[in-house]
Design a protein that fits this description.
This protein has 235 residues and is of the alpha+beta class. The protein has two helices and ten strands; from the N terminus they run αββββαββββββ.
């Protein structure tokens, strides 16, 4: 009678299993590190994009404030004392004309020094202007700084903007950029006895130093030219 033989089924040895498990573990580790690196890069790019958008919005607000500067009888449309810039500007709601005071300064906070903007409630009298003007100066002297928008009495607001190490201002006067300072008093005009105390300069140059971080860093220069002047005074 013929003999029937069955080939013995051969499985993996213990060493082969250990080698296979080691290779799979190594591949998993490499894949995880690759995914972690991609996730970190995506997060950093998003943080940088957010920081750049915030800076662009801040500079847009800066330009809008200067564009909206208005002159009232016996008031100052602009004032820079080396610490705070105060402006008298028109309200942004065209359907309800109003005037308000805005101020820009640097203030320290829990996350470092930041550029901050204060805005008064709308007003309609010169007495209200004087009060808002004085409040803006007092706000700049206050060393506290919160990180979020805070609404004060009567609708005043204080907004924390972008990190800034330092800033400087220059005025364009008599065909030259000069360090911003106290503007000369406007001579009395018999035809306009209720004119402003000082006149707006033809241009304002902003120079800010941005700290290293998620967004842009280094020195940034932004020129604003009074709309009625015409061609820009510098590139």
């Amino acid at each position: 009678m013929p003999r029937v033989t069955h080939a013995a089924a051969r499985g993996f040895t213990l060493i082969e299993l250990l080698v296979a498990i080691s290779v799979m573990a190594l591949l998993s580790l490499v894949s995880w590190r690759g995914l972690e690196s991609m996730s970190r890069a995506t997060t950093q790019n998003q943080q940088r994009a957010d920081a750049v958008l915030t800076l662009q919005a801040t500079l847009a607000q800066w330009g809008a404030d200067l564009d909206a500067v208005t002159t009232l009888a016996q008031t100052r449309p602009i004032d820079w004392d080396g610490r705070v810039l105060r402006l008298t500007r028109r309200g942004s709601d065209a359907s309800a004309p109003s005037v308000l005071v805005v101020a820009w300064t640097l203030k320290p906070g829990p996350d470092g020094v930041r550029w901050r903007r204060w805005q008064s409630a709308p007003f309609s009298t010169r007495g209200d202007w004087q009060q808002a003007w004085n409040t803006a100066a007092a706000w700049a002297q206050d060393g506290s700084g919160a990180n979020s928008t805070s609404n004060g009495p009567g609708g005043a607001s204080d907004v924390s903007l972008v990190p800034v190490n330092s800033w400087q201002l220059y005025y364009f006067r008599e065909n030259a950029w000069v360090p911003a300072g106290q503007l000369p008093t406007v001579a009395a005009n018999p035809n306009n006895p209720s004119g402003p105390i000082v006149a707006m300069p033809d241009g304002v140059r902003l120079v800010v130093t941005l700290p290293p971080g998620d967004g842009l860093s280094g020195t940034l220069t932004r020129d604003w030219v009074r709309p009625t002047v015409g061609a820009p005074k510098s590139s």
